[in-house]
Design goal:
The structure is a homodimer.
Chain A (H helix, E strand, L loop, with lengths): L2 E5 L3 H12 L3 E6 L3 H11 L3 E2 L11 E4 L3 H10 L7 E4 L15 E7 L16 E5 L2 H14 L3 E3 L2 H31 L8 H13 L15 H10 L4 H21 L1
Parallel strand pairs in A: 1-2, 1-4, 2-3, 4-5, 5-6, 7-8
Antiparallel strand pairs in A: 6-7
Chain lengths: ~260, ~260
């Protein structure tokens, strides 16, 4: 049974850990600098846990980092190092070579999804992007990805940066636009739920079409009459007005290029 | 049987028309300034059609405008007017009183959804927002909305403006972000479909939570390291870089207020 030390107990770690257990991997320890997070996940999954870097076990076959980009190197510098083990991280933007000066076997296992602790995600439908410093390591990483998911794709660190950027637009930024629309409605005490069918249909449409081909709204024809009135409704929230203006211009710019 | 003249043969008109027919309304004519659109929809639904404003029939009980905001008044000025008939429009931003100086009975029937000609939409799940200049007209409009949909809500012109603005963010602008993410991926020849599970989960999460509570990504903690690197990836598309910067700042601004 392959043994894993899991570095991190946040959103990504708490989704990957039970899936790894179910698929025959033995997580022998969870490390988190936040004792409470380590304890919560450790107790839930009946796994040893620690918040002390020096207490990280040395005999694991895989060290899986599911922490923020910034946290990888500080932990790597202080933890006990193991020349035989495979070191993996799960980040979108971090190059694989972050590991290079510290360890011998390393790679990346990046699940492209938004994870929250209290939401179930069907990992089998989540695309996993993998990369390794040696062919034999790629075999091991692919095996993990293919056990967890139906979609496993090899991708370089450079391409992964673009993938992560695209995900920031399609997920993090989209969510912020949902937030703005909720704020606009709440001013008039209209419940956000009236937008639910629109949000679902907008997402669904993008899955079945080229988004540029199904673009609608006042910005497409740059209807200055509506655009100016809507900007006026946003005059008390200049940060939202700026977003409105920038996106409208960008939509119109694309539209003009198409014509 | 209530008789309707439909003004417009675009996305909204082509979704409403068959639903009205199925629910016992008799569309006696379709007008569109584009002959081809009028003909296409008219022939499909076996309804008389015209592209001549003066040929619009005078004896209908309802004149339903499903055209762009700008097009309402020019048609209204030139068409034969009917003091007994009810005049409705389907727009989000246009006040009801656009009709005031021309006709006696009027109101609004606004379906909050994104309509494309080639996509089926389940109208029964689409919220319809209604408004009328007289209580007896409201009864008629509500009856139409309740036949077409399970969700019928009375809303003033002023509140409807905000609703439409919210919809622009949650639909039109969200779609543009999907477009940007697709463009970013296409530079690296990565298929847009890898983002599908993320797009679906992001939408689903917003339906089940307060979007501000589930905001994730580098902008939340304003991770300047990732933000600067990602801005650099966008250096050849300054309009996307500006959108990236504005939205990141706005996400962080909200986050700081929460803390």
């Amino acid at each position: 049974m392959t043994t894993i030390v899991l570095i991190g107990a946040g959103n990504v770690a708490s989704h990957l850990a039970p899936a790894l257990q179910k698929n025959g991997y033995k997580i022998i320890q969870i490390y988190s600098r936040t004792k409470k997070s380590a304890q919560l996940l450790g107790e839930k999954l009946k796994i040893d846990y620690t918040e002390k870097i020096q207490a990280i076990k040395q005999q694991a076959q895989i060290y899986l980092f599911a922490v923020s980009d910034k946290a990888i190197e500080p932990v790597l510098q202080k933890m006990p190092q193991n020349k035989q083990a495979l070191y993996l991280h799960t980040g979108g933007s971090m190059p694989m070579n972050i590991f290079k000066q510290y360890v011998t076997h390393f790679g990346v296992l990046y699940p492209l999804q938004t994870f929250s602790k209290n939401r179930k995600v069907n990992l089998t439908q989540v695309p996993f992007f993998v990369e390794a410093n040696k062919p034999e390591n790629l075999v091991v990483i692919k095996k993990i990805a293919e056990k967890l998911s139906n979609i496993c794709i090899e991708l370089s660190s450079d391409d992964r940066k673009y993938l992560h950027l695209a995900a920031v637009f399609a997920c993090n930024f989209v969510n912020h636009l949902y937030h703005i629309s909720q704020q606009v409605l709440s001013e008039k005490k209209i419940d956000f739920s009236v937008l639910h069918p629109l949000i679902q249909e907008t997402a669904q449409k993008a899955l079945e079409n080229n988004p540029a081909d199904v673009q609608t709204g006042p910005a497409v024809r740059y209807d200055t009459n509506i655009i100016e009135k809507q900007l006026d409704l946003l005059k008390n929230t200049p940060q939202y007005a700026q977003i409105y203006e920038q996106i409208s211009k960008s939509i119109h710019f694309i539209q003009k290029k198409k014509e």
